[in-house]
Amino acid sequence: MTSLDIKQKTIAKEVSLSGVGLHTGKSVTMTFKPAPENYGYSFIRVDLEGKPLIEADANYVVTTQRGTNLEKHGVTINTSEHVLAALVGLGIDNCIIELDASEPPIMDGSSKFFIEKLELAGFREQEAFVEEYVVKDIITYKDEKTGSEIIVMPSDNYQLTTMVDFGPTY
Q1: Domain CATH code at residue 94
Q2: Could you list the residue range(s) of the whole structural domain that residue 74 is in?
Q3: Is the pLDDT of residue 63 over 80?
Q4: Which of 15, 121, 128, 135 reaches 20 to 30 Å from 31, CA-CA?
């Protein structure tokens, strides 16, 4: 990890929005709350006893079928990707996401409404600096079952190249 000359950021105040989960069809209220430095992102299920917390961590991804689904100690968060995309896209480093159901509201299917709410909350710079993982070697992974493959390469610039190949279509 390399420390950047950029300070971490959270939101200035809590904001909420409500809707319906895409796959569960359940009504849900989601509240974004400021988080301390070096916290990252976590989901808290306020509808369950003990208010279990699930960090937005790749180690908790259990499926990516029709959404990025997290599970920790039997507690799930479904379809987390649009919420997390809004936070990353706005450069928010630390945020608590409270839900009273297992799935964030779908809204219009994008991150638009999450971004608008987070912008209404405002942003607060924190004292800690952002840390960045610097890729120094080529990293490859291939899932033999699905044929999916990812290659990460060192670069002086942030860039993504994606390719989709569905194989022969006879």
Answers
A1: 3.30.230.20
A2: 2-132
A3: yes
A4: 128
